[in-house]
């Protein structure tokens, strides 16, 4: 089955510093990869996706992610973190062998941006 | 602001009650989803409707009963729930097209359910 792994439970970063949230994937075939963010007491919000094309994908709120096929990674990055970026971040992959309309989510990373 | 609206935002029910969660979207999406999410955990897929037909049921207990009255509405009927069913229930929608599924889900803010 397709899967993603988010190795860290929590990422702490000082405001203004670069933010990286790690994700590695395991798929058969070409991966469809996604990042979602969940702010406190809210639903998930789509940030960005990689399907094909440029390895560097730009998304909402100044986030970007780099698809690295050799390292099977899709890390989320932001050059300068804001306190308002504190949230739960989920990496996801399209779970194609199990049919359409399924995403396999990683366990999530809590990001804490320290003022 | 989310374009997927869920009501109620909070619901407390006893194990013998019958209640319903409602979801509405006006983006013209033809796929709608119910997810269950426990605190700090990833969402777990429960049901998917595609063009108003149930296409995925992830072996959800029958005490949860989904309904899709039309392309904009999705309900989740609840009956005889257990305390362990307490969770955030998220509705989502996505486009369906001849090009296939893009994987971009639009989530509502959720209905927080507590079963006593």
How would you portray this structure in words?
The complex is a heterodimer of chains A (115) and B (116). Chain A has 115 residues and is mainly β. Helix content of chain A is 0%, strand content 50%. Chain A contains no helices and twelve strands. In chain A, the strands form three sheets. In chain A, strands 2, 5, 6, 10, 11 and 12 form a six-stranded mixed sheet that branches. In chain A, strands 3-9-8-7 form a four-stranded antiparallel sheet, with no helix packed on it. Chain A starts with a strand and ends with a strand. The mean pLDDT of chain A is 93. Chain B has 116 residues and is mainly beta. In chain B, the strands form two sheets. In chain B, strands 2, 4, 5, 6, 9, 10 and 11 form a seven-stranded mixed sheet that branches. A four-stranded antiparallel sheet of chain B has the order 1-3-8-7, with no helix packed on it. The model of chain B has no long low-confidence stretch (mean pLDDT 92). Chain B is globular. In chain B, 0% of the residues lie in helices and 55% in strands. Chain A binds chain B through residues 32, 34, 36, 41-46, 49, 51, 88, 90, 92, 94, 99-103, 105-108, 110, and chain B through 2, 4, 6, 31, 33, 40-43, 45, 48, 50, 55-56, 90, 92, 94, 100-110.
- Outline the biggest β-sheet of chain B: 7 strands, mixed
> What structural class do you assign from the helix and strand content of chain B?
mainly beta
Low-confidence stretches of chain A: none
- Strand % of chain A is over 45%
Largest interface: A-B, 25 and 28 residues
The chain-level mean pLDDT of chain A equals: 93
Count the beta strands of chain B: 11
Count of helical stretches of chain A? 0
Approximately what portion of the residues of chain B adopt beta-strand conformation? over 45%
Helix content of chain B: under 10%
| Residue windows where pLDDT falls under 50 for at least 5 positions of chain B | none
Radius of gyration of chain A: 14 Å
Shape field of chain A:
globular
Oligomer category? heterodimer
Rg over C-alpha atoms of chain B, rounded to the nearest angstrom:
14 Å
Span between termini of chain A: 40 Å
């Amino acid at each position: 089955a397709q899967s993603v792994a988010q190795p860290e439970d929590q990422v702490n970063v000082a405001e203004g510093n670069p933010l990286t949230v790690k994700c590695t994937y395991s798929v058969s075939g070409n991966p469809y990869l996604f990042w979602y963010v969940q702010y406190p007491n809210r639903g998930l919000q789509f940030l960005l996706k990689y399907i094909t094309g440029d390895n560097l994908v730009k998304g909402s709120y100044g986030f970007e992610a780099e698809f690295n096929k050799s390292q099977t990674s899709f890390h989320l990055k932001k050059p300068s973190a804001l306190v308002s970026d504190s949230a739960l971040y989920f990496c996801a992959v399209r779970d194609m062998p199990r049919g359409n309309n399924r995403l396999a989510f990683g366990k999530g990373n809590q990001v804490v941006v320290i003022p | 602001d989310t374009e997927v609206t869920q009501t109620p935002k909070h619901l407390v029910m006893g194990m013998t009650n019958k209640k319903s969660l409602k979801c509405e979207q006006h983006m013209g999406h033809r796929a709608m989803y119910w997810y269950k999410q426990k605190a700090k955990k990833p969402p777990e897929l429960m049901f998917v409707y595609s063009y108003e037909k149930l296409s995925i049921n992830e072996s959800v207990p029958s005490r949860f009963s989904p309904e899709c009255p039309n392309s904009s509405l999705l309900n989740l009927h609840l009956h005889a729930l257990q305390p362990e069913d307490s969770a955030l229930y998220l509705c989502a929608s996505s486009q369906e097209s001849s090009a296939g599924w893009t994987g971009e889900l639009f989530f509502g803010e959720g209905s927080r359910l507590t079963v006593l």
